Structures are given as structure tokens and as C-alpha cells.
Amino acid sequence: MTKKILALAGDGIGPEIMAAGLAVLASLAPKIGFDYQVEEEAFGGAAIDQVGHPLPDKTLVAAKQADAILLAAIGSPQYDQAPIRPEQGLLALRKELGLFANIRPVKIFGSLSHLSPLKPERIAGVDFLVVRELTGGIYFGEHHLETEFARDVNEYSRAEIDRILRTAFEEARKRKKKVTSIDKQNVLATSKLWRQVADQVAEDYPDVVLEHQLVDSAAMLMITNPAKFDVIVTENLFGDILSDEASVLSGTLGVMPSASHAVDGPSLYEPIHGSAPDIAGKGIANPVSMILSVAMMLRDSFGLSEGADRIEAAVEAAFLAGVLTQDLGGNASTQEMLEAIINHL
Ligand code: NAD
Ligand code: IPM
Ligand code: MN
């Protein structure tokens, strides 16, 4: 049956990397017998410009009807002081679709290991997942701003914590069977509840080791001993910050994909980085984060592991052949990077 994929290109480098992701999919699909159609809708700043809202009704309806969603990036400095921002569309989409589980894999490409700012012995063996809670916490509590006062509320229910912890334990079962739960239990009530629930959920997974880590020291360990992690699970804000920090291990944000899953309904696949306004429109963005997001979609939403493996192998082969975008210290354009990957598919 034909699978429906919704493509949300968004802003900045979004359209450039989305085109690359879809080109890889178009090249691979006939080779693996994948039958699909792509619908494109306005989202983010592009949608504000068109209809005055970052998540138009038509886009939301299309998202709910899709089998999977690809999102490139949203955001632009032009909306920094605007009453409605592109980011609100992204948060609303995550909430509307119930995309509570955001999976951000951190792996070092062998061919790129020399690009990491860390010493080779520190990044040897780095391969972990950040499981970020995506529909709760301070992102979705009350935000209140006055001239002399501001408040942001951080809230978590037991049920919200329980389900993301279970996601982390399930992921750990497929890997090295270790979960590191990251919180700020020495200060925050939400973190105290988080830690209690983590300990309770762990009882259902006796084959998986659970350790707790405070977020400040976890940030330090991510640089001094990143190979110690297998599955990290943490609340929305900590996960946002730690996953960008983790991207430095691999040398660039430009190779970092993610998947976001709901209890049921379509999953969404997007790079972890933003719209990179500083390089937008120059044809130099690294498309690998988007291309690897397509691979995650094939594996998670359509059970096409072989297709996903082929994309990942083609990316590695293109890197090994020395085709590197500027963020990786090379001089390949987006188009040249894309062509090298397609040639290796
Ligand atoms: P950013 O992630 O857009 O960029 C950070 C740095 O990484 C920049 O120097 C950029 O050039 C570089 N970079 C990012 N992706 C790259 C790629 N594929 N290839 C090469 N270089 C790349 O973060 P920012 O500048 O802080 O934010 C810009 C806008 O993006 C903001 O409006 C922010 O809210 C938004 N944002 C959106 C998403 C999303 O759509 N999911 C995620 C993060 C930030
Ligand atoms: C991300 C982004 C978003 C977030 C922004 C754009 C709202 O930084 O996907 O990591 O903070 O979740
Ligand atoms: Mn982020």
C-alpha cells in the first residue's frame, strides 16, 4: 500500500536539506520496493508568512493523516520579537500528535573521528541514545512575562514520567542494557518525582542497569567520559541542551537525526539542529542530518531496516571518500554531498 509521507521543509536551510532527504528517498525507494507519496505543507515561519500561523489547520490535518512526517527545520531571526513565532508551531505539532518520546542517537562516524574536538581515546566507543521527554515539562507549563517579573512553570505527572522511562528501558534492552536517568533531584520537585518513578519502572526491567546522574555532572561526563553512556533519559529542557552538547562529540550538529514517537499515530523525523540562518540559501548546509532522519523513518515507521542500513552505509562511504561539507572541514556543497551519498546507495 502506498505510504503517505508529509514533508515540512520550514525555514532557513530547511528547504535545502529537505530536498536532499527526499532525493535520497526517491533514489532508494525503487531499489527496496517502497511505494510512497509525498505531500508538502507550509510550516513555521513560512506558514506565518502565508497564513499568519506557524501550524495552519491544513498542515495539522495532513500530519494526522500521514503515515510518517519529515520535518527539516523552522525558525528565523526575523520573528525574534514577533507576537507569534515559528517555534510555537513546532511545539504545537509535537503536542497535538502526542510525540512524547524523542530519540536522538549519538554515534561517531569512524571516518569523522578526527574532527571531534575531543581526544581520540575519549570518543572511542561512543554510541548512545538520548531519550528526551518531548511533550511536558517547562516547555508546556505556564509562561508569564511582565516588565519586572517572569515565570515559567515546570510540571510533570507520574504517568508522563513513567511512559518515557519505559521507552528508555525498552531501547536499552535492544542495546547495552544500561539506562542513565538525568535529573536535578537535589533541587527540583519534578526531579524528585522523576527519580522515584525511574526506580519503580526499573523493577520491571531487572535485566537493565539503571543509574542516576545529576544534570550538571552529566554535562561534564558527556565530555570527559562519553563512552560510559548507553541510553540517557531526561526531561524536555535537559534533553534539549544535552543533545546539542552531544552533537559536538561527532564534530557537528549537521549529522544528527532524531525520531519522535507517540503512543499511536504517525512518528515525526527531524534533524536536532535548527534552521541555521547564518548559512541559509548558500547551498552549503550539511544534508546528512535530514538524510539520516529519512533512514530512521524507514526503520521505525515502515520496518525497512535494510533500506535504513543502506542509507547509513552510503553516508559513511561518502565521508570515507572524502566528500565533506564545510561544517566537517571540507568544501563540498549540499548538492555534492547529496550526489556522493546517492552514488554510494
Ligand atoms: P542552529 O541549530 O540552527 O545552528 C547552530 C549552528 O550550527 C549554526 O552555526 C549553524 O550554521 C550550524 N548548523 C546547524 N545545522 C547545520 C547543518 N545542517 N549544516 C551545517 N551547519 C549547521 O541553532 P540556532 O542558530 O541557535 O537557531 C536558529 C533557529 O533555529 C532559531 O530560530 C531556533 O529556534 C531554531 N531551531 C529550530 C529547530 C527545529 O526546527 N527543530 C531546532 C533548533 C533550533
Ligand atoms: C529542538 C529545538 C526546539 C526545542 C525549539 C526550536 C523549540 O531546539 O528541536 O531541539 O527546544 O525543542
Ligand atoms: Mn534544540
UniProtKB/TrEMBL annotation:
Residues annotated to bind Mg(2+): 216, 240, 244
Isopropylmalate dehydrogenase-like domain mapped to chain residues: 4-341
Pfam assignment, any one: Iso_dh
Sorted UniProt keywords: Amino-acid biosynthesis, Branched-chain amino acid biosynthesis, Cytoplasm, Leucine biosynthesis, Magnesium, Manganese, Metal-binding, NAD, Oxidoreductase
Binding site for NAD(+): 274-286
The EC number(s) this enzyme carries: 1.1.1.85
UniProt-annotated binding residues for substrate: 94, 104, 132, 216
Positions marked as site (Important for catalysis): 139, 184
One Gene Ontology term of the molecular function aspect: 3-isopropylmalate dehydrogenase activity
Cofactors that this protein relies on: Mn(2+); Mg(2+)
Localization terms from the record: Cytoplasm
PROSITE patterns reported in the protein's UniProt record: IDH_IMDH
NCBIfam families found in the cross-reference section: leuB
Family: Belongs to the isocitrate and isopropylmalate dehydrogenases family. LeuB type 1 subfamily.
Complex and partners: Homodimer.
Function statement: Catalyzes the oxidation of 3-carboxy-2-hydroxy-4-methylpentanoate (3-isopropylmalate) to 3-carboxy-4-methyl-2-oxopentanoate. The product decarboxylates to 4-methyl-2 oxopentanoate.
Name the record gives this protein: 3-isopropylmalate dehydrogenase
Taxonomic source organism: Streptococcus oriscaviae
